[in-house]
Specification:
The protein has about 425 residues and is mainly alpha-helical. It folds into two domains: about 250 residues, no CATH class; about 160 residues, no CATH class. β2 and β3 form a beta hairpin. It holds the Pfam family YhfT.
Length: about 425
């Protein structure tokens, strides 16, 4: 059943991309819209999709998937974006996209098991240290609302948001240590990062909602882009299918929607992972909704609430049903969300700032995580390699996206160390 879920997700996602209905990469939606409007050829669209997504699959999705033995959704859906958009959109191209997408999903799942076994035969098994790549992400992620506030409003408001979030985090730590929260004889443990994240998001949306549209300057997104919203609604059945499949696969702990919840799942903290996924979903609603309304191209994971459903549903079949219902509700509510975003332009504009803040934070966290992992694999040499790798990549004009430098560098150190041990020029690190 697990294999079937992943194969079907790969096949359906590839079909959605092939038919220009939905793509996972946020940056691809406006480009797909250009192709729909006839201003971009299919070949150029396919090449652009490859250029935008391939590096993220190899440098971002796969390393996280390997480190936790749980599929990061980016691994599969960024790949199906490429598969669907490269194959022609015709009577034979679409079935081929579905077949390749399904095989890609199957290969990712079975290849993952093979990779784990392969590591056991290496002189230096660096799979466990590789897990350190994502460790800083969970802790540092709580800072992104403060950065988003600073980017959109002011540095002073950003500092205030960060300070309050940090205080709340430490209060949560104190409450946990003292066992102050109880239900009956059971002590309740707060997730300190989750509490800080919620406070930060409250500050962000409070500032955003105070920024109302000036009289006469409002743009009715729902009416301006009514045809595009209608196009998304016409394809709601497809979204229900893939939403159901992804919610089910998440409930089976086969995949996660982001690095934070993935690392929490790897630590066995499913409830905390659900809270982190919910916070992320709330933050992404303005971005996903505004790009969907403006382009007529949706995301195969919608607002990412289906991951929250998967993590909190009591069993896989309920997750499947609720996942389908949730994504149906999202699509049907798009027009109302458009009107809300139009009423509060600060909330609408926060979408891009949230994305920028997350990206900047992940760049820093993954670089630190990659350096720590590399140094665990090869003490001393690991820090040296990651520092040099990062600086040379910057000097070369960033051929590897910053967010991928830490994970890719850690994997490279693991490979180099194994080669040196086999050649006899390095002892197995202790």
């Amino acid at each position: 059943m697990e294999t079937l879920f992943v194969i079907l997700i790969g096949a359906v996602a590839a079909i959605l991309a092939n038919q220009n209905i939905a793509v996972f990469n946020d940056g691809l939606r406006p480009i797909v819209s250009e192709h729909i409007d006839g201003s971009l050829k299919r070949r150029e669209l396919g090449l652009t999709a490859f250029a935008m997504s391939f590096g993220l699959v190899i440098g971002f999705g796969i390393p996280f998937t390997l480190s936790a033995s749980i599929i990061l959704i980016h691994s599969i859906l960024l790949g199906t974006d490429i598969i669907g958009l490269i194959t022609p959109k015709n009577k034979w191209g679409t079935p081929i996209a579905a077949i390749i997408g399904g095989l890609y999903g199957w290969g990712l799942l079975t290849g993952l098991e093979g990779f784990v076994k392969l590591f056991e035969y290496l002189p230096v098994n660096f799979l466990e240290p590789l897990g350190e790549v994502g460790t800083p992400v969970v802790v540092t992620f709580m800072a992104f609302p403060a950065l988003a506030v600073a980017l959109q409003f002011s540095i002073k408001k950003g500092i205030l948001t960060f300070a309050v979030a940090a205080i709340v985090r430490q209060l949560a730590v104190f409450v946990n240590e003292q066992g102050l929260l109880t239900i009956g004889d059971n002590v309740i443990t707060l997730n300190q990062e989750g509490m800080a994240l919620i406070v930060g998001m409250i500050f962000l949306f409070a500032y955003a909602m105070r920024e109302k549209a000036e009289e006469g300057s409002s743009v009715d997104l729902a009416s301006v882009f009514s045809e595009k919203v209608l196009r998304i609604k016409k394809n709601v059945v497809y979204f229900m299918i893939i939403g159901a499949l992804i919610a089910g696969a998440t409930n089976l702990l086969l995949m996660a929607g982001d690095p934070i919840s993935l690392n929490l799942l790897a630590e066995g903290k499913q409830t905390d992972a659900g809270i982190a996924a919910a916070a992320r979903a709330i933050g992404f609603i303005p971005l996903v909704a505004s790009t969907a309304i403006a382009t007529g191209v949706y995301s195969p994971v919608g607002f990412t609430l289906i991951f929250v459903v998967g993590l909190f549903a009591p069993n896989v079949w309920l997750a499947v049903i609720i996942g389908a219902v949730v994504i149906f509700a999202e699509v049907m509510l798009l027009s109302y969300i458009a009107k809300f975003l139009d009423k509060y332009p600060g909330v609408r504009n926060s979408g891009e700032n949230i994305r920028s803040a997350m990206t900047k934070l992940l760049e820093v966290a993954l670089l630190i995580g990659g350096a720590n992992a590399a140094n665990m694999i090869a003490p001393g040499f690991g820090f040296f390699f990651i520092a040099g790798f990062y600086l040379l990549n910057e000097a070369a004009g960033r051929p590897i996206v910053r967010i991928a430098v830490g994970p890719v560098g850690a994997i490279a150190v693991g490979i180099i160390v194994n080669i040196l041990v086999l050649l006899g020029v390095m002892n197995i690190p202790q």
